Here is the input.
Amino acid sequence: MEQTILRGRAWVFGDDVDTDLIYHNKYLAETDPKKMPQFSFEYYPGKENFAKEVKEGDFVVAGRNFGCGSSREHAVYCLKFSGIPVVLAESFSRIYYRNAINNGYPVLFVNGLSEAIKAKAINDGDELEVNLAAGEIKNVTNGKTFHGDAVADLEKDIMAAGGLIEYLKEQAAKSA
Amino acid sequence: MGKTMIEKIIERASGKKVKVGDRVWCNIDWSTARDFGGANCVLQFEEVTEKKGKVWDPEKVAFTFDLQAPAHAEKVAQNQKTIRDFAKKQGISKVFDVNWGVGQHVLLENGLVKPGDVILGTDSHMNLLGAVGSFATGVGNTDIVASWFKGTNWFRVPETMKISATGTFKKGVCMRDFLTLLVGTLGADGMFFRSVEFYGETIENSTLADRITLCSMVTEMSGKVGLILPNGDVLDWLRARAGNEVDERVKAIAADPDAVYCQELSFDVNDLEPLASCPDAPDNVKKVREVAGNNIDQVHIGSCSNGRFEDIAAAFDVLKAANFQVSPTVRTIITPATRETMKRCAEAGMIQKFLEAGVIFTNPTCSLCTAEHYGVLPSGDVGVSTTNRNFIGKVGKGSHTYLMSPMSAMASAVRGVITDPRDILC
Here is the structure.
C-alpha cells in the first residue's frame, strides 16, 4: 500500500448514513459507474451540493455504520469516481465494506470518529492529512489525531490486487 | 467447543474448520441477481471476460425481476432485457420474470432454497431466507460477478448472538411488533456484522411468514443473517417444496448445545404492544398509541418483510372488523409479495373485498421500497408502510414514513390517522 500522505478537505457526515442518502434509489437503473458521482449525497440534508462542490482529493468522514441499507454498489462507485481517495468512518456497514474492498477502494475504520464529529473536533472543510498505510489521520485545522484499525490480510491482498475481480484473475494466473 | 449454525454452514461450504474472524472461501449454492443490480452484474461480467466468459454453473444462477416490475421506464426495460439476453446466451433457465414477485420469496416457493445453502443476491434483504436456515446474503455486483467465475466467494466468519422469545402475542400484536422492539432496543448497528439465531416458543410456533418478517429486518440492525432452524409446519412446507434432503440439512446445521455466543438476549412478548418505527429511521421506535391520531396520506402493505398471505390476511381481518371501509382521505395500496400469494388472496375472496373497500391491490412486486415506483410520496406527505426502511426521503424527497405491522397499517387506513389496531379489533 502506498506510503504517501494524502491531503484534502473533510466532508463530514453523521452516524448511520444509509445508501439512499449516499446514492438515492431514484438512480438505481444507472449502469455506468462513471455517471454515478453526479448523484452523490443528493438526499443528505445540508449536503445537497456535494456533487457540484466536491474536489478530487477531498475526504468523506463519517460516524458509525456508514453505508447501511441497500446492497447497491453505486454508493461506492459514486464516491470512488468523485475522486474521494478514502472514506473514513468509525465503522462501515458490512455490505458497503465488502463493496469497497471488492473495488480496491480504501475505507478505514477510525476509532473515536463518531464522538469527534458530535464534539465538532472534525468539521466540514477541515484540512486533513491521511497516512493510509499507517492508518494515521491528522486534522491539520485543529491538530487532533485519529487512528485507523489494521486491515485484515485477505482484504489487504484484495486491495493490493486492485479489487476482487483482479485478485481472482491473479490467483487463476498463479495456479495456471 | 461447540459450533453455532453459521459456523456449521460455513464449514460445510468451505470444507474447513473455522472460528470467528477467519476469512474463508465458500462454495455458493445460488448466485442470484435482480432487475436492480442484475444489469450491472451482466455488463461487468461481459466487460471483465471480454464477452467470452461462461458462468461456472448455469443451474446455480438465477435472476428475479421484482424492484420495478413490470418496467416503468425505458432504462429499466433495457436493463431487464440485458438480463434476459444474457440468461439466454448463458443457458440460465431460472429467470423469474416480471410476473413472479419478490425474488427471495419466489426462490423459496419454487423449492430452490434449502437449510444450509449459501446464497448471494443483489438485495440487502436476501438474508430473510435465514427464515429456513439458509445463509443468504445481500451483496453488490462485483461479488456476484466474482462468484460467477468459479462458484466461490470470500466470507468473514461472524460472531453469533442468540435471541430467545417466549410468550404469545395478544390480539392486534404480531411478529412485526416484536422485531420493531428489537430494532428499537438494539439500534441500527445492534447486530453489527453478526449472525443471529432465534429460539424460544414464540419463534418455534410461528409461521413461515412471521419468520421471514423477523429475519428480513436483521439487515436494519446491520446483521449478516438471522437464522431459524426449520421445525413443525415450516419444515413440512419446506420438505414438500425442496425435497426430503431438508431433514438432513436441518440436522447438519443445528447449533451444538455448547456453541459459543457473543451475546444472549431473552424477551417475553406477552405484554408487547403495537409499535412503530417513526420518521426517519427504523430504530426510532415508539408505541403506536403514542403517535395515534397523527395525520397520514397513504398506507402501503406489502414488501419482502410483510407481503405474504398471512400478512395480507391479518390486514383483511382489521378491514373486516371495520365493515370493509377504508378512509377516503387515505390512499391504501396492498402489494402481495408473490404471484402465489396473490392467487391465494384471490381464492380466499379477499381481493374483491379489498377492491370494494377502495383499496388499490397491485401485482406482486417490491413496490414502495423505492421512489421509482407507483405510490411515490410527494414532499410533505406522510405514509404508513410495512416495508423495512423509512430513511430520509426514501420514497420521495420531503416525505416521511412510519413503519408498522399490517394490522396497524390497515387500522390507520380505516381511520385515516395513525391507529392502534386494538381500537378496531378488540
